[in-house]
Amino acid sequence: MYKRILVPTDGSKTSALALQEACKLAAGSEARLRIVHVIDSPYAYADTWYAAMSVDADTVQRAWRSAGQEVLNQAAAQVRQAGVGVETALLETDGRRVSRVIVDDAEQWPAEVIVIGSHGRQGLEQLLIGSVAEGVARSARVPVLLVRAK
After folding, report:
1. What is the pTM of this model?
2. Angle made by CA atoms 137, 38, 118, in degrees to the nearest 5
3. What CATH number is associated with residue 62?
4. Which helix (H) or strand (E) holds 139?
5. How many folded domains does the chain comprise?
6. Rounded CA gap, 118 and 120, in Å?
7. Fewer beta carbons within 10 Å, N or C terminal of the chain?
């Protein structure tokens, strides 16, 4: 089956379900999971509202990195408890869409499959908010397993 499984996480319940599915895929094999968390770069907004609010972009970035690392640490602990090999990566958008960052990382690693949670937004909500999972599914060169919220 798959030996290299990429799992993006945002710390949500839906991401946790995707991680559980990835562990099931990996169970009983020598598969390895790579869990990634993507943070937006506050520097993209440094000249706009951060400056207007007198907020230091470096402070924001440190806070986002710390929170993202905690999300990764919790997910990795869950995977290790399931007996599956795991590595993590904290990624930044650097002006790219989150979905593009995930797909680029999947290609670079290289992943054989991406397992990602989908919140199942539809209509105007999806149009306004967008869907990272949809963007990944549309542009990935490897199979994508979408795990829907229950």
Report:
1. 0.87
2. 40
3. 3.40.50.620
4. helix 132-139
5. 1
6. 5
7. C
Per-residue pLDDT tens digits for 83-122 = 999 999 999 998 899 999 999 999 999 999 999 998 765 5
Cα separation, 30 vs 72, whole angstroms: 21
Phi and psi at 69, nearest 5°, equal -65, -35
Identify residue 111 by its one-letter amino acid code: A
What range defines the domain where residue 80 resides?
4-148
Angle between helices 132-139 and 98-108 (to 10 degrees): 40
Q: Tell me the β-bridge partners of 88.
A: 35
Q: Are 122 and 11 in contact (CB under 8 A)?
A: no
Task: Report helix, strand and coil shares of the chain as percent, to nearest 5.
Answer: 50, 20, 30
- What is the rounded distance in angstroms from the CA atom of residue 86 to the CA atom of residue 5? 9
Burial (Cβ within 10 Å: 0-12, 13-18, ≥19) of residue 61: middle
Residue with tokens 């000249």: 47
For residue 86, give the DSSP letter.
E
